[in-house]
Amino acid sequence: MKWHVLRPLWVAIGLVGVILIARVFLVPDDFGVHGRNFTYGFHRLSNIQEWKDFPVKYQGRESCAECHEENLQMLNASTHATVECENCHGPSVNHPDDVEFLPLDTTRELCLRCHAFLEYPNSARAALLGVEDRRHKRRKVCIECHNPHDPKEDTR
Amino acid sequence: MSCSRRDFLKDAVGGTLASVMPLSAFVFLSTAEAQAAVAESKTRWAFLVDTNKCVGCGLCVDACKNENEIPYDAEVTRTWVERYVITKDGKTHIDSPMGGRDGYTTMDIDGEEIDPDDIDKAFFVPKLCNQCDNPACVQVCPVGATYQTNDGVVLVDRDWCIGCGYCIMACPYGVRFFHPVHKVADKCNFCYHRISKGMEPACVECCSFGARRIANLKDPEDPVTKIITTERVAVLKDEYGTKPHVFYLGLDENVR
Fold it and tell me: Do residue B63 and residue A87 have CB atoms under 8 angstroms apart?
């Protein structure tokens, strides 16, 4: 073959070589087949640990009980026993170390999530106490009269 | 055709080498490595949704967004709750405003008022990633940024994802979305950071009605696994062959 035909071939081979060398530096060492096969398990292994290290925000009622046991006892004895503290008080994240006060949600909208009356007789919603937002003490916040930790109690 | 002894030997050696070459593509593992590679994980995460128990409060969606740092007011979410209202004229009305993040507090569906007397049945269906055994989203990823862990959860490598969006289109359940902050594909991972620490996913913890539960299918003593294996459960879009691992109790035929 003539030299001028071969020349672009050397250029192409050189390019492939450059890409291969760059690949050695750019692709992490732990990149490869780590799962059950190539199709589903081809990935960077350390990413699994990265996801495990993602910060937890909702700590659960056990962590609340460490300081607020009285409130939790009251809640556990009420019809709201299954409601998580953090549903209304917000995620505790690092409370009380970093965040001293949690953003407590006291709006009507929060209560209405479960207690707005929807006429769906065969859904689970029907089993909950429902009010019609437009007809029930429109200008008042629910917690003015109802204690969320013990809804049966009248706080008026 | 003539062939000298020298040419014959040359070709024979070359041919043998060429046929042996592909063998070098195989990796030779030590016994320990081979055992580790085929060892089965003791965990296979699965999820149980009891649609009979869901009241449509949307607190799971709210918790998921907070826990997983999904922009609160963006129209993307890792999990959502759909409302189905089937009226007497045979029509199915479905809505999920903001993924049901703020709960369902009125009878209106997409601004349309529905007369309670016309309703045959109405219910809520929570949805999330199915952590399929044959995840279509993983197959289509061109860079190996999404993968299945040994315990069955499909994860997205945020450092490696190029944001091409193939996986978002491949998922038959519409679970994946483009994360507006990280500019990569994102999806529910059963709160992998929580379940790997022995905690429940945020949506499970925040559900007051037991409509959402997490299970380890490889643990026969797991109470939720017992429900999945002994009761009549259904999955979404079985016909796609993706082998979804979110099981539903009380799934209606109108749910898509």
Answer: yes
Cβ contact (<8 Å) for A119 and B119? yes
Residues 6+ apart with CB under 8 A from A108: A133, A141, A142
| Nearest CA-CA distance, residue A96 and chain B, Å | 18
In a domain, A150, yes or no: no
Domain with A97 in it: 61-144
Domain boundaries, chain B: 5-38
A135 close contact with B: CB closer than 8 A: no
How far is the C-alpha of A145 from the C-alpha of A142, rounded, in Å? 6
pLDDT tens digit sequence for B64-122: 999 999 999 999 999 999 999 999 999 999 999 999 999 999 999 988 889 999 999 99
Residue contact B106–A116, C-beta within 8 A? yes
- The structure's pTM equals 0.86
The pLDDT tens digits of the residues spanning A61-92 come to 999 999 999 999 999 999 999 999 999 999 99
